[in-house]
Amino acid sequence: MAEAIHRPTWLEIDLQALLNNVNTVQSFHRERTIWPVLKANAYHHGVGPIAQTLIDAGISHFSVSNLDEAIELQQIFDTHKIDATILIFGDVLYENIALVRSNWCLTMSQLEWIKGAKEYDFSNQLHVHLEVDSGMHRRGLQTLEETKVALAELLSDERFVVDGIYTHFAVADTDVAGTEQQAAYFRDILHHLDYEFTHVHCANSNGALLDVSKECNGLRPGAIIYGIGIHPEDYQQYGIRQIASLYSSLVEVKQIKKGEHVGYGWSYQAGQDEWIGIIPIGYADGWVLGNQGRSVYIDGHYCEIIGRVCMDQMMVRLPGLMPAGVTVELFGSHIPLYQVAQELGTIDYEVVCLLDERIMRTYIK
Ligand SMILES: Cc1ncc(COP(=O)(O)O)c(C=O)c1O
What we know:
Strand order of the largest sheet: 11-14-17-16-15-18-10-1-19
Helix content: 25-40%
Shape: elongated
Bound molecules: pyridoxal-5'-phosphate
Order of helices and strands: EHEHHEHEEHEHEHEHEHEEEEEEEEEHHE
Number of strands: 19
CATH class of the largest domain: Alpha Beta
Mean pLDDT: 97
Number of helices: 11
Radius of gyration: 24 Å
Largest sheet: 9 strands, mixed
Number of domains: 2
Distance between the termini: 26 Å
Structural class: alpha/beta
């Protein structure tokens, strides 16, 4: 893909805000290991600079979704000659086991996978964490019995080193009782497994704000380190800052007459003579059609997105003549991401994860 450096549309990432968020989470969990979640290109913030910043801050445990992401992160470690641990959430195909390094931990969430792997001819030692399904019903071993069998299977094969155990919360943002119930289930499983795990972890971002995981010595925050995924009122209370701001520019400004239409499908009609501006971002960038009718912030004014969002550009109604070249905030200090998500009827995770690599990322240290 062409490098996105010649278009005045950019995602600005504040690395100080990232550090602030990680330090804040760490301050709530002083004795616990933080495994920041860097999957999906660090929730599309750019895994290179995000990982580098966290490494410089002394973080040495990370989590990712799959083998490809582990390989990419390992390249960053190798370049900087860093020793760090990577937890991989997803399954690894048997034929790829040989690629797994000794500083990576694989998730063991299925008895069938473990049994199949034991039959497979590989010689590298695999460090693993068991995943227990405590109520999310996505990945994970489902009962105490199944978890016991999985542990026994792993311990009977010296190619496996069982380092950790974890579960994942489904409703930590909305249901404290439900989350406590998941934590209690996990605690019970732990209690009945006669094994000293080096790493025990449950909490995601919202779990990190609750006091439900006393038995854990680690946590896996993702969204919160990017300053998303928590309730709007919690930002101020906990001092969490959104790290990404999306900007573009007015590239053309023109006047249209009352009754004229704008864009594909002519879905907008000017109620009076109006100034409009063209902004070079569209649905190919992940700036979806649902943004029509929402607002962007330009030089002190909230300006409505009018007409259908195009593939590479969109139009806004201006309060009057504005100079081409002026900066447009799509989200940032005047329009928080949670507001964008609310207005689009989705979650802020999705808004950032939809932002295409075509949008240049810039990093403020
Ligand atoms: C297993 C696991 N742990 C932790 C996280 C981080 O969750 P959050 O971004 O809500 O903190 C995720 C993300 O979905 C996950 O899948």
